[in-house]
């Protein structure tokens, strides 16, 4: 699943973006205190974009993984879900 987090200080602008982009995932979070948001500070985000690969137990497997690393981490699931390269 995908979760996006915005640091936009203007919630109304983020709502416009959500409507325009029509992203297919359902979880959208607003860290509306920007860099001072508790969520941003907890995750130690220091640049945009930052990508976290998280397992089903909420354990962070990789931060800003390269494509090869993502493929390697997802290999065990390919036979289960029919993922392609």
Biggest beta sheet summary? 2 strands, parallel
SSE arrangement, N to C: EHEHEEH
Helical region count?
3
Which outline best applies?
A: globular
> Which consecutive residue ranges, at least 5 long each, have pLDDT under 50?
none
Q: Rg to the nearest angstrom?
A: 15 Å
Strand content: 15-25%
Helix-strand category:
alpha+beta
Round the mean pLDDT to the nearest integer and report it. Answer: 86
Helix share of residues? 25-40%
Please give the order of strands in the largest beta sheet.
1-2
Distance between the termini: 18 Å
Outline the structure in words.
The structure is a single chain. The chain has 85 residues and is of the alpha+beta class. 38% of the residues lie in helices and 18% in strands. It is built from three helices and four strands. 1% of the residues are buried. The mean pLDDT is 86.
């Amino acid at each position: 699943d995908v979760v996006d987090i915005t640091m936009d200080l203007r919630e109304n602008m983020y709502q416009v973006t959500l409507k325009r982009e029509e992203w297919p995932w359902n979880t959208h979070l607003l860290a509306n205190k920007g860099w001072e948001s508790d969520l941003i500070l907890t995750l130690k985000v220091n640049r945009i974009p930052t990508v976290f690969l998280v397992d089903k137990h909420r354990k962070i497997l990789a931060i800003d993984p390269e494509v090869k690393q993502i493929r390697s981490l997802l290999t065990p699931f390919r036979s289960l879900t029919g993922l392609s390269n």
